[in-house]
What does this fold into?
Amino acid sequence: MDERSTAIIGAGPAGLTAAYLLSKQGVPVTVFEGHPSLVGGIARTEVWKGFRFDIGGHRFFSKSRRVEDLWTEILPDLLVRPRSSRIFYDGKFFSYPLRAFEALSKLGPFEAARCVASYAAARLRPVPDPRNIEDWTVNQFGRRLYEIFFKTYTEKVWGMPCREISADWAAQRIKGLSLGTAILNALRPARPQPRGEVVKSLIESFRYPRHGPGMLWEACAEKVGAQGGEVRMGRRVVSCSLGADGAWTVEAQCDDGSRESVQARHVVSSAAIADLAPMLRPALSDEASRAAAGLRYRDFVTVVLVLEDRHVFDDNWLYVHDPGVKVGRIQNFKSWSPDMVPDPALVCYGLEYFCFRGDALWTMPDADLVAMASRELEHIGLARPGWVRDGTVVRQPAAYPIYDEGYADRVAVVRDELRRRMPGLHLVGRNGMHKYNNQDHSMMTAMLCAENILAGRELRDVWRVNQDAEYHEEGSEAASAASASRNA
Ligand SMILES: Cc1cc2nc3c(=O)[nH]c(=O)nc-3n(C[C@H](O)[C@H](O)[C@H](O)COP(=O)(O)OP(=O)(O)OC[C@H]3O[C@@H](n4cnc5c(N)ncnc54)[C@H](O)[C@@H]3O)c2cc1C
It folds into this structure.
């Protein structure tokens, strides 16, 4: 057996990146993907009656030159799209990222004064060492702006009070942004920061495949095939067994009920840690099994609605802060790429609902979800009765790994045991590492993992990749993904 041979669980961005880079170097790779036909994982593109849509909308933007270059290598003619997103609150549109003066003037003088006063109070007496989202955001923006622009949406996304959500989430998603930076940006809108950095929430344009993100991952899967690798669809991995000789046997259940297996020296897993743990043989200790089972995920339903295009809004997406409706965000897929709709006279919205598998939203019949989403669109004034022509529903389990109290300790327990007892098993990607991150992070972990497999030793610690896909060498917080690639 080739010492570098690799079985990969999942044909999402992480699994396919690893497969592409390994097969390019002649390594035998087999990718098992549970979805019957679509690659790309959460970054796939669904197609229905000629309409294409993402799970969310997938901006292709990374601070890592290496990731950007890989996207170009896989799909050279990515579109460059302008970003426009707004917050819909109290019947008005507010720019997102917030523009301080616009927000304050639209809120009116009384509310604006309350916001400024509460911001001043937060600056004077910040919560020391903020551990949850509420304290973190109040420190950055003041309590009143937090209540208006963060609380409702964040609680819709996570399904729990902001005080129970770790500040890690806010720190990485709205990193570098505060009312102070928002005001500075309003006064001096030049985007590049000193040292060429960009505040993540403020990116004004991004790349995007003409037919959605799945187009890039389909091109990647084709290249894996052309390089001699295999991507096997409709195969759900059910067990991974480590033999006494150090070889792994990975067994998958096929869509037709049959089983198949491959042997390999390495297993790269982008499956959720909670799903992978019970598949492992020899079995994990009780402590590690409990830790893995304790990891939680937030699920996601997109209700896709087709309407005649009356140009009600042309943003890529809207955040809906109205507590009177369940919808959290609305995508306008035509604004991502006009080729996402088959008829230019029509528009296709994705109304996004955050939920837990098995709850009332998740189990609601599709027709009821389409009716509810249509009503909500009317309720917030973005459609009139009779405008919605058609609709469908896509459910995405485990869209978000949850950062609740204790999640980091649980991940550490599993990691530690895998490192000691499971040589050749590599965790990569979003749910694969329980990291709430974008494609670039998932890809960078897979890139470093491929380097390790090629080198036959752990050159890189994939857990040192930060949310910006930057690789931090031990003791060198300034190291970037670019320098990681130079060091490679
Ligand atoms: C609403 C939303 C919006 C987003 N927007 C952006 C954005 O704008 N830009 C961006 O870069 N990123 C965005 N992301 C994040 C991006 O989708 C993820 O970072 C990325 O898809 C993670 O890649 P992955 O390969 O780690 O995991 P996944 O995409 O989850 O892929 C894992 C794959 O493994 C398969 N799998 C799992 N278990 C098994 C098994 N047992 N056997 C076989 N196959 C299995 C799954 O079917 C899936 O195909 C967004 C995510 C969401 C939810």
Observations:
- The two ends are 26 Å apart (CA to CA).
- The chain is about 35% helix and 25% strand.
